Amino acid sequence: MFSFLKKFLLSSQSISISELAEILKRDKIKLLDVRTTSEYQGGHIRGAQHFPLERISSYQGKKDEKVYVICHSGLRSRRAAAILRKKGYDVVNVRGGMMAWLNQKVGGII
Q: Can you tell me the distance from the alpha carbon of 38 to that of 85, in angstroms, rounded to the nearest whole number?
């Protein structure tokens, strides 16, 4: 069973933070930030919807819309992607997470 789960998690589609930045320049996307409330409030990508990992199984977005997920480093978002994929969503994990995001953020201390 562990090998199946490992294979499932590793088979997730993912992109780098720089690829996300390019996509955001040209497209409006569904981006879920799965970090904690305090992490999200400390600064997030403009347009990202806060949806903490512990609630991700209750997500009910459009199944025909690709969903991108991001967290602090990419680990929680990979777990979130696996959960959403199992529910039938087309999901893309953002590797590197907010830790690697060098572009402008909204929220946080100015």
A: 26
Structure tokens at 79: 């777990």
Angle at 81 between CA 35 and CA 99, to 5 degrees: 40
Q: Indicate the pairing of strand 91-94 with strand 49-50.
A: unpaired
Helix-strand-coil percent breakdown of the chain, rounded to 5? 40, 15, 40
Predicted pLDDT of residue 24 = 97
pTM summary value: 0.87
- 36-65 per-position pLDDT tens digit: 999 999 999 999 999 999 999 999 999 999
Residue 76's alpha-carbon distances to 26, 84, 95, 98, in angstroms, are 26, 12, 10, 12
* CATH code matching the domain that covers 2-100, chosen among 3.40.50.300, 3.30.230.10, 3.40.250.10, 3.30.70.20: 3.40.250.10
